[in-house]
């Protein structure tokens, strides 16, 4: 995969890599482990934000 990037700019996929990336985002099924990790993170974030709201600033 040809990826161009540096510290101060964006990532650019070239030709076939860009086509495959778009196809992957549209058609491939999500990874079950990634979905479970996302759900756990979302739950933890809600807990953190819930405790911060109760603290005075």
Could you describe the 3D structure shown?
- The chain is mainly alpha-helical and 57 residues long.
- It has one domain (3-54).
- The protein is 63% helix and 7% strand.
- The chain is built from two helices and two strands, in the order E-E-H-H.
- It has helices at residues 15-27, 32-54, and strands at 3-4, 12-13.
- A two-stranded antiparallel sheet has the order 1-2.
- A hairpin with a 7-residue loop joins strand 1 (3-4) and strand 2 (12-13).
- The longest helix is centred in the C-terminal third of the chain and has 23 residues, at 32-54.
- 0% of the residues are buried.
Low-confidence stretches: none
**Total strands:** 2
Measured by DSSP, the beta-strand proportion falls in 5-15%
Could you tell me how far the N terminus lies from the C terminus, measured between alpha carbons in angstroms? Answer: 47 Å
SS content category = mainly alpha
């Amino acid at each position: 995969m040809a990826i161009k990037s540096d510290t101060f700019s964006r990532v650019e996929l070239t030709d076939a890599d860009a086509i495959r990336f778009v196809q992957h985002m549209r058609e491939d099924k999500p990874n079950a482990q990634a979905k479970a990790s996302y759900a756990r993170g979302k739950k933890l974030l809600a807990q953190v934000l819930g405790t911060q709201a109760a603290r005075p600033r």
